[in-house]
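Here is an idea for our session: we take a single protein and study its fold together. To get us started, please write out a protein record for me. Once you have written the record down, we can walk along the chain together.
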Amino acid sequence: MSGALSMRGVSKTYGSGEASVEALRDCSFEVRAEEFVAIVGPSGCGKTTLLNAIAGFDTVSTGEITLDGRRLAAPGIAPRPGPDRVVVFQHGALFPWKTVLDNVTYGPLRQKALSRPAAEAKALELLRASGGLDTTAASYPAQLSSGMQRRVEIVRALMNDPRLLLLDEPFRAMDGFSKATMHQHLLDMHRRYRKTVVFITHDLDEAIYLADTVVVMTTRPGTVKQVIRVNLERPRVPQMLYSREYAELKRSAAESVHEEARRAFERGEKEQA
């Protein structure tokens, strides 16, 4: 299993004529197999549009997206999700009427990829590795904390053994303490299972701390403004947040992001006028 992702000249326009909206323009970057890439940029810059195209939920207007050389998206290709790409959404997507175990085993059983005993054994193993969540297997989502629910969703994503894990601001609604805990958990799961990760966020600290590479997007139409290689050692530890190397990386990224945020704000004022 690999997981090398390539975006080449990807653009996306919604609608036509005067009502058209250009969400993405000529986006190009590469993601190596097992790499953790964070995409940052102002609201409305097309981050989620790009993630949806990678996931197979949406089309592209120009360019192409490939995974291990296989074309996922290009003009004329219908959206086509697949078990090789799994999304963890910003808002929880667990079935509230199913137990943790039933939520986690749902995908493989629905696709008939595993027998029920095999699926349950794999689920319990993954839940156990996720901070002892196997003890919650008979619980329902409403009985879990928000952090535990997020961990269950990551386990459910890993059940299909995907090549690519796509996360759309999964920790946005969490308080600082819970978010820091989830960062360490996600880093541990990435080290353990070595999946390629594309992570959407507005949080620069989050992006730099988690990722091998940070892709900074411009305001709409979104394109790649800067690609920052994060040369911090792994495993990542919270003390790195106070290092000189971290401060320099954040300064470089902040200059790009703040400039685009200002442009988005000014454009919004003009549009409302």
Summary: Residues 244-272 form the longest helix (29 residues).
